[in-house]
Design brief:
There is one protein chain. This protein is mainly α. About 70% of the residues lie in helices and about 0% in strands. The chain has 16 helices and two strands. Strand 1 and strand 2 form a beta hairpin.
Length: about 350
């Protein structure tokens, strides 16, 4: 497969994974709620939890794949660090700064908990510093950017990942099996390693999978997601997540390759360049959006649960896209910096 066509497919995959991440943040339910047995609750759990939990691991796999698909050397390592400084580190700091400002406003005017950011009315600068990598429960101020924080660490460790995943396939597979046996993903590092293994030894396996294995992967992914609505796979959960992530990637790739309609392709092409911005911007107001629609529709009925979820999803994606269009037309240089000089690339 031509490399340009491969990149286009990967950009489309990232868009669909991004939609899954936004869906996760539209979960209007709480684990201790009495309405979890309703049809609407099960539907929301399926689309915003069990089915989409593979999205972030799949992003790590793609990141590892892209990082190691070409020859790795000390010079390429330096070049990649230089590029990632602009595509990851600078946007990471800027969006965390924006999130910090909004968090202060939410605390002051909307009654949000401060989580130690203020003490006796005074801002705690040590907590401000900590918040750029761990504000609450291991998440930075820009909570969705925990993925980018971890990814930047993995990139710094990429020579180690290269020795594990690319030198000998046996070493990479042993490493993955050990992680699965210990029921750990090492904060996503094992999925980054998997991406490197695929790039090195199975480069075309995902892109050239035929219809029947691809459909089988889709059925497996959906089946496990349905079962997981009721049964939480705590034991060997990383193994199930590994199986689901690979299966979902194969299935999504095949479905994207199979899209024939020009209208659908045109919509995808319009949204792909906005992928990173939607990912970055939606986190600023997803909790406010969820709470707003919960108050409007309530959670007492299946229809109310579904409407609150769908309204949140449409608002987060639609408004973020409109803001992206506005910034693109009015101040493209600012947008470019916020998106890490990505141009028309998705992520």
């Amino acid at each position: 497969m031509a490399k340009r066509n491969q990149y286009l497919i990967i950009d489309n995959i990232k868009l669909f994974l991004l939609l899954g991440v936004v869906s996760i943040h539209c979960n209007v339910l709480t684990s201790d709620a009495v309405y979890l047995t309703s049809l609407g609750a099960n539907a929301v759990i399926f689309f915003s939890s069990t089915l989409t939990r593979t999205c972030v691991p799949a992003f790590f796999i793609i990141s590892g794949f892209l990082f190691y698909q070409n020859k790795f050397s000390f010079q390429s390592y330096k070049d990649k660090l230089y590029r990632r400084f602009y595509t990851l580190f600078i946007p990471y700091m800027l969006w965390n700064l924006i999130s910090l400002i909004l968090q202060i406003l939410k605390i002051k005017y909307l009654g949000f908990p401060d989580h130690g950011l203020f003490e006796d009315g005074s801002i705690q600068w040590i907590k401000v510093f900590e918040g750029f990598y761990n504000y609450v429960d291991g998440y930075p101020f820009a909570f969705a950017f925990w993925f980018i924080r971890n990814l930047m660490i993995f990139i710094l460790l990429s020579p180690v990942a290269y020795l594990i995943s690319c030198k000998k396939i046996s070493i990479g597979l042993i490493f993955i099996f050990i992680c699965l046996a210990l029921n750990t993903t090492l904060w996503g590092f094992s999925f980054f390693i998997i991406g490197g293994i695929i790039a090195r030894y199975f480069k075309n396996i995902i892109f050239k999978m035929s219809i029947y294995p691809s459909i089988a992967c889709g059925i497996l992914w959906i089946t496990v997601a349905i079962i997981n609505i009721r049964f939480q796979f705590d034991y060997l959960s990383s193994t199930y997540l590994f199986i689901e992530s690979i299966s979902s990637l194969i299935f999504i790739t095949y479905m994207i390759k199979s899209i024939k309609g020009r209208a659908i392709k045109s919509i995808i092409e319009k949204f792909v360049p906005a992928t990173f911005f939607i990912y970055s911007f939606h986190q600023l107001y997803c909790s406010v959006t969820r709470n707003f629609y919960i108050k409007i529709f309530g959670l007492d009925t299946s229809s109310g649960i579904i409407m609150a979820y769908l309204s949140s999803l449409i608002t987060l994606i639609g408004l973020s896209y409109l803001i992206w269009i506005t910034l693109k037309r009015t101040c493209p240089s600012v947008l470019n910096i916020l998106c890490g000089n990505r141009g028309n690339s998705s992520f």
